[in-house]
Amino acid sequence: MVGPNGAGKTNLLEALHVVTQGFSPRTRSDGQLVRFGTEQGRVEANGRRGLVPCRVRVDLAAGQGKRAEIDGRRLSAAEQLRRELQTLVFTPDRLAVVKGAPAARRAYFDRVLGRLAPAQLQLPADYAAAVGQRNAALRRVSAGVSSLEALEPWTERVSEVGGDLVAARLDVLAVLSPGVAAVARELGLEGVRLSYEGEPFDRAALEGMLRRDLERGTTGAGPHLHDVSIQAGTRDLRSFGSQGEQRVAVLSLLLAEARLVADRRGYPPLLLLDDVLSELDSERRAALVGLLPDGQTVVTSTAREALPAEPAQVVQVTPGHAVAA
């Protein structure tokens, strides 16, 4: 997909993500997805899951929730599309996975967890809900309107679900790490590894923090405070990686996950790569092409000449129009 800056290439990629995943990779405000001056919008797509054709539609309306259908079947929530279709996206904002705060990495790897282990998709949300309930109970106890006994069930729930979440994250890192290291090596970055960072967590850890938690009204131990370190050799790429190395690390995560998704689902995911070529030298661009999975990959660029290989199709984007070139 080629066109000048501001022509709408990113908007088209965003539309593909919305219609296959039920949400935007850019914003959680549905109102921002509807064109200025209009009240409604719709994205429709025809494609295949492996060899099976499918039709998808997402309707948007200002002030209302999104509505999604797949093969004419209405879904109870648009984000259920994540269970049905697999799409992975790179945007420049994704560099926050490496150089951003721990919350960005936790959110990223929890999404990876949901894609690689669909049965555990709800685990991060269940844990967040339990922590929220425990925090509310802590504040009630501190205010003298509740007893410590009322806090016990939520302490038990947080320790149980939190332990499951830590174990699930460790499993994901274990299966993802070898592929990330291999892809990064192909892209010229040696010694990339992922490591989980966080204090050991169980019920005893929560009980040891009880006095402090009551004073502050928040749960001071658990996987909501943990992090994942992304390193190259002995360097933490968050603090000591160049912009190009950080980009390679994010691409390595994406492509390694794509391979695992293809192995587990039986077909590769849709890859959306927005402005992926900037800050990659010619050798890394060529290597990237060789690492792409067999499925469909959509790449944006300002010029066809910037693409490192001959694409199967070129879409020329100008403001308000997209045509096959």
Describe the structure.
The chain is of the alpha+beta class and 325 residues long. It has a domain at 95-277: Up-down Bundle (Glutathione S-transferase Yfyf (Class Pi), Chain A, domain 2). The protein has helices at residues 9-21, 81-84, 96-99, 102-116, 123-142, 148-186, 203-208, 210-216, 237-240, 243-265, 282-291; strands at residues 40-49, 52-61, 67-70, 73-74, 87-90, 192-197, 227-232, 235-236, 270-273, 297-299, 315-318, 321-324. The strands form 4 sheets. A 4-stranded antiparallel beta sheet has the order 1-2-3-4, covered by helices on one side. Strands 5-9-10 form a 3-stranded parallel beta sheet, sandwiched between helices. Strands 6-7-8 form a 3-stranded antiparallel beta sheet. Helix 4 (102-116) crosses helix 6 (148-186), helix 5 packs antiparallel against helix 6 (148-186) and helix 6 (148-186) crosses helix 10 (243-265). The chain is globular and about 70 Å long. The termini are close together.
